[in-house]
Amino acid sequence: MTTNFLYRATESITEEDLAWMPLEQPDLPPEFRGFRSLREGPLDNETMAKQSVLNRTADDLQRLGRITGHLKEFAASASPEGIAPGSSLAVATVVHLFRDGESVSNWMEEVFRKEFEASIGDEVAPGYRVESAESFAPKGLASETIGMEVMQRGPAGGASSTVVDFRVGRLLGVAYTITAGEPGEKSSVEDVAAALERKMVRVVLGA
């Protein structure tokens, strides 16, 4: 997917272009269509450092080649019957702009995979710790990609995140789902990631 032509096209991408790339509600797979908007907006390095579970400062992110990003996150409506194990809680897509493609590849391996694996046992919220973090090879994507399944457990039970990172030129696309209890089917987040990849390419090529 990341041909020389496509890579050159991403060199002209601006911060303003990023807002058109994350998935809107109608872009999501059917299982997430009833979700409500939770968070949306620019994700500069200062904001990324505050919100991310990765232990990185804004200066760290800049040194790693990250410039900025844009996020759209949706959450399931509260059920009066409570949250059933295995139910989807949230879905999100994020697009990050990096200095170059090498910085994206380095981030995926040295930051995304290795730091998630190193976070096992860390407290990520009051009373909640990372129980496991395992990588997997996502399907359905044409570009360089890596996935992670992360399980967190605390007083109210467990929650799992399934995350897919992939590269399009000097852009990093991220799709993730959050599930109550054990991780859900990988196909759910893979479908979201594939839709995000297609939309990113359309924007890059000016479609």
Class inferred from helices and paired strands: alpha+beta
Radius of gyration: 16 Å
Instruction: Encode the helix/strand succession as letters.
Output: HHEHHEEHEEEEEH
- What is the residue-mean pLDDT, rounded to a whole number? 90
As a percent range, the share of strand residues is 25-35%
Distance between the termini: 16 Å
Number of helices: 6
Biggest sheet strand line-up: 1-2-3-8-7-6-5-4
Shape: globular
**Topology, number of strands:** 8
Question: How would you describe this structure to a colleague?
Answer:
Helices cover 29% and strands 35% of the residues. The chain is built from six helices and eight strands, in the order H-H-E-H-H-E-E-H-E-E-E-E-E-H. The protein has an eight-stranded antiparallel beta sheet, with helices on both faces. Strand 7 and strand 8 form a beta hairpin. The protein is globular. The two termini are 16 Å apart.
Short structural description:
The chain has 207 residues and is of the alpha+beta class.
Q: Could you outline the blueprint of secondary structure elements for this entry?
A:
Blueprint: H1 4-10, H2 15-18, E1 36-42, H3 45-51, H4 58-63, E2 66-75, E3 88-98, H5 101-118, E4 123-125, E5 128-136, E6 145-154, E7 157-168, E8 171-180, H6 186-204
Antiparallel strand pairs: 1-2, 2-3, 3-8, 4-5, 5-6, 6-7, 7-8
